Amino acid sequence: QVQLVETGGGLVQAGGSVRLSCAASGRTFSDYAMGWFRQAPGKERECAAAISRYGGVIYHADSVKGRFTISRDNAKNTVYLQMNSVKPEDTAVYYCAAAPVITGRMPRRSSEYDYWGQGTQVTVSS
After folding, report:
1. Residue 51, SS3?
2. pLDDT score of 25
3. Are the beta carbons of 34 and 50 closer than 8 angstroms?
4. What are the backbone angles phi and psi of residue 114, rounded to the nearest 5°?
5. Which end of the chain is less congested by CB atoms within 10 angstroms, N or C?
6. CA 44 from chain center: how many Å?
7. By the 8 A CB rule, do 94 and 79 touch?
């Protein structure tokens, strides 16, 4: 089992920045690719960003590319999502998730992720 706890959400003004953190425990963190997913009211959950086990392969959705940055620190068992120049349409519950994959793989589909955090709300005011 892997336990994931997200922190860092809240209310932020459009154009501002916020940093989400996800602390993992229970298993070897570097055995897992990590993803940040988000779900807005009435919309499907989407992968905002994902990172391979050692950070060599990274994905950012087109909607966040150039504004959000995913990173991880395996020594601290933590994955981050730096969100800059946020927009009202970034308002959502953000979830981190862990996928047990081989080195270099970086899943984007939620079905490939076995473990999920409880989510943290990010609200961007205009």
Report:
1. strand
2. 94
3. yes
4. -90, -30
5. N
6. 15
7. no
**Secondary structure (3-state) at 110:** helix
Among residues 94, 118, 97, which one has the least CA distance to residue 33?
97
**What does the DSSP 8-state code read for residue 111?**
G
Please name every residue paired with 98 in a beta bridge, in sequence order, or none if there are none.
34, 115
Q: What is the length of the chain?
A: 126
**Angle, alpha carbons 125-36-41 (nearest 5°):** 45
* Per-residue pLDDT in tens (0 to 9) along the chain, 126 residues: 899 999 999 999 999 999 999 999 999 999 999 999 999 999 999 999 999 999 999 999 999 999 999 999 999 999 999 999 999 999 999 999 999 988 888 899 999 999 999 999 999 999
pLDDT of residue 124: 98
Rounded distance between C-alpha atoms, residue 41 and residue 67, angstroms? 22
